[in-house]
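The instructor's notes for this session suggest beginning with a concrete chain rather than abstract definitions. Hand out the sequence below and ask the class to guess, before any prediction is shown, which regions might be ordered.
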Amino acid sequence: MKVGLVSDVHANLPALEAVLEDMPPVETVVCAGDVIGYNPWPAACLDRVRDLADATVRGNHDRTVETPGRYRGNRMAEAGLEHANAELSTDELAWLRSLPRAASFAGGRYLLVHSHPAPEREDAYVYPEEFETLEKYLDDLDEDGDLDGLVLGHTHVQGSRSVDGRLVVNPGSVGQPRDGDPDAAYAVLDTDADTVDLRRVAYDVDRVVEAVSAAGLPERTGTRLHHGK
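After discussion, reveal the predicted structure:
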């Protein structure tokens, strides 16, 4: 089965549209969270992901959209959440609240989370070069030996590794890459072969910069996208 993997859309509609146009045929799409935050199109992106993805887990921005003051030390994050909280409908906010911390797909063979798979480390960053540190947690989750892999996001850095025979994948960020490449990131997972195609696609960053300004969001929210950071 071919599965489209998206994560960290962060209300960037031009990037999401480019990813969906570029994505080859897949049987299903899953989202590793942070649908909203930072950028100007929270409702449009939420509605597209809700309609498209068969599984979506909550990211830290999805979880804190109604309490933006928790990001008072990061004005870009706080302003993006304030904007989303004002723009989203009651139904859309309820959908975000309903998202699970973790979900499985491909018949339970793959686990989907936003960040670290351990609940007590929910907001921990795990970069691709650190994927091997997840071996113990994967062993704990795989009591029956049926787990083929893990998909996570949060770092906005694309990568994949085989960890003790299990595939760990971060598809990267659709809406705010932080690996020095400004192109929107996503991936296509082949669950039959347990292989992944890490993909990038260019989009109109200037459109986002203009919309960020029009929405009154911090200027750097848009300009940083030109540099993939």
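Then share the key points. The domain at 2-227 is CATH 3.60.21.10 (Purple Acid Phosphatase; chain A, domain 2). The helical segments are 13-22, 42-52, 60-63, 75-87, 90-98, 135-141, 205-214, 219-223.
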